[in-house]
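Practice problem: predict the structure.
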Amino acid sequence: LLACLTEYERLRERMTRAAAYASLRFAEDGSDPRNQAVNARGRALMAQMGAAFAFLPSELLALPEGTVERYLDEEPGLGPFRRWLEQVLARRAHTLHPETESALAALSEVTGAPYVIYNQAQAGDMRFDPIVADGKTVPVSFSTYEESLERSADAGIRRAAFRSFSAGLRRYQNTLAAAFAAEVKKNVVLARLRGYESTAHMLLEPQEVSIDVYHNILDVIQTELAPHMRRYARLRRRVLGLDRLLYCDIEAPLDPEYNPSITF
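Answer:
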């Protein structure tokens, strides 16, 4: 077991570096076919490795109860893997037949398609109309909007950029809605296959958060935080001198002159 996990970790280190490189090239320019191809190869390799190692949790769970715990007591070298092993054992009730797990791992590229579609649309396909600011034409994109335009001290620039950004997103709303619906349905099916009480239970399990804690957080946000945020929004409107506060005004700087330099 120690030899297997050591090799598994070594391969994951190599694969993570390769996949991260491919992902960052895609983030650099998602419209470049070469970057798209590299990123696709990275995803394919990760899926291939996932399928190859799908046997590992299944074989661990097939051992008599208490065996893995005994291994941990007897072999100090397994210490760094204790957390991972405990997480595998905790999923015992929701782990499927080994062949099914292998098939699901091999299909990870397919089941992950909705997120890929979103990233591809965002990085390579979406186009936004430029705006005019101070007599100059300013391009609008995800990066320019989120990094500078929505934080502009000029309400006219912020709102013009928001209109352009919203209109650009709206052109893809049906396609992205279909991708999102596919993601929701996928999770519902997986939760049923694995015997979870609900999809929420399945998604919370890796985070080790109970459904009660999850609902409590939502309730606290709605009942206790929301009134303070509404007061804060009204305060921002007064300080910014706006007749009304729009969504695109949330990130507006309260003091445009305060911009200290921060070193890496």
